[in-house]
Design a protein that fits this description.
Two copies of one chain form a homodimer. By secondary structure, chain A is of the alpha+beta class. Chain A is built from five helices and ten strands. Chain A has helices spanning about 30-40, 75-80, 140-145, 195-210, 215-225, and strands at about 5-10, 45-50, 55-65, 90-95, 110-115, 130, 150-155, 170-180, 180-190, 240-245.
Chain lengths: ~240, ~240
């Protein structure tokens, strides 16, 4: 009998081209599908809640797959982990409703972005924190972040190379805190467009540098023009923390 | 004119045999001396505040060296960093008194040890957190930690392979906190013997597992016998946070 298995995955994205399988590249999805193939001697396709870019990390990516085998769901994570490299770990495996779909059922996502705001980049966290040398005005960034909240058409914050038509998204929460020389930005929303968080962060960095005013965020959103927003901040700072169902 | 330069170093110890130069191994000290050689075309020997083992990290290792060159002290860090791999960064460079010695002048050190206390090891922090699967009783560990405070003869907590005679050390502070599934242990002391913190952590883990009682720490210290203490916890969890002068 076909079962639906939901898995929660933590990965260090440093050595991967991203979540999704792509020709001639090594992806997280591919590694997990290879592990399932080795375990169950069957081609099992997994469906992730969303893609992550090259170098982007996840503490709580979610995926599902169908399974015929008779293994208790909570043992599946241990079994898969034996076949995975150490920079990918299944942290949870559970039985899901047969209709469950990791992407279509997702109600929202939480992402975290870390900026290492110091004159020298971090040695230990070089792959987890995006380095910005100029000291940023965090208060101004917090003020600016509030303009993103709510329902907006986010064309100005969408990278090229996507064929999504509807660019309306809702952002529920943005928390920006500074701890030592690390600025942590947490975003919770209904969903995010291609590069959306990294462009929002790049724009907030411009605010923190004093290049643009916090109020400018509204105008940039309304303009719908990618050219008005800031640069795409480095993927290494980004982490998919949680998928909400 | 000879100058004395003090540098503060952050490094990810994952790919190194430790701080100190050893034959046929790659050490942090060696990488910095090679960088200085490349910069100043001279053999510059650096003196660290203390050794760290293979895989152990540092946020604030300190070292000194003598220099003849006429470069402003605050520029030295940028110059050295251009010649270093990204997992080693000089975060501060400053002029020191000509008598300054990174090791002899050190009044104490702060180390931090991170335990990933969950059934699955962390993918992202696999090189920064020591994995312990059994859920530990942190309250008991805090109780046990207090028995280490003060001046003791720490033979029972010293690894073999050291020729230090005086094994009396003073521990000023031990803070143990749990955040999510991470247990963070911070130790501040006059100095630490070879493997001392990792053996203390291994013993505190035994307390957290209920294998020994918190009060047993005193007896183990008094016994002076390494066999009575716990296993040496994995070096990847350890980080030299700060050297006190």
């Amino acid at each position: 009998m076909k079962r639906k298995i939901k898995i929660t995955i933590e990965y260090d994205g440093t050595n991967y081209s991203g979540w999704q399988i792509q020709p001639d590249q090594i992806s997280v999805q591919q590694k997990i599908e290879e592990a399932l193939k080795a375990l169950f001697n069957d081609d099992v396709k997994i469906h992730g809640a969303g893609r992550t870019d090259a170098g982007v990390h996840a503490l709580g990516q979610v995926a599902h797959f169908e399974l015929d085998a008779d293994i208790p769901s909570e043992r599946i994570k241990y079994a898969i982990n034996t076949k995975l490299p150490k920079d990918i770990r299944i942290v949870k495996s559970e039985e899901a409703d047969i209709d469950f779909h990791a992407r279509y059922n997702a109600k929202g996502k939480v992402y975290r972005f870390q900026i290492h705001n110091a004159d020298i980049p971090s040695a230990i966290f070089r792959n987890n924190r995006y380095h910005v040398r100029q000291i940023l005005d965090v208060e101004k960034m917090i003020e600016a972040g509030a303009f993103f909240l709510g329902v907006h058409e986010f064309s100005a914050f969408c990278g090229s190379g996507t064929d999504v038509d509807n660019k309306v998204r809702e952002i529920y929460r943005i928390d920006i805190v500074k701890r030592g020389n690390v600025i942590e930005l947490e975003f919770q929303g209904s969903g995010f467009l291609y590069h959306m968080i990294r462009i929002m962060v790049g724009t907030l960095i411009d605010v923190g540098k004093g290049k643009i005013k916090p109020q400018a965020i509204s105008e940039i959103i309304l303009s719908g023009d990618r050219c008005n927003a800031g640069a795409t901040a480095g993927g290494c700072g980004l982490c998919l923390v949680r998928v909400l169902y």
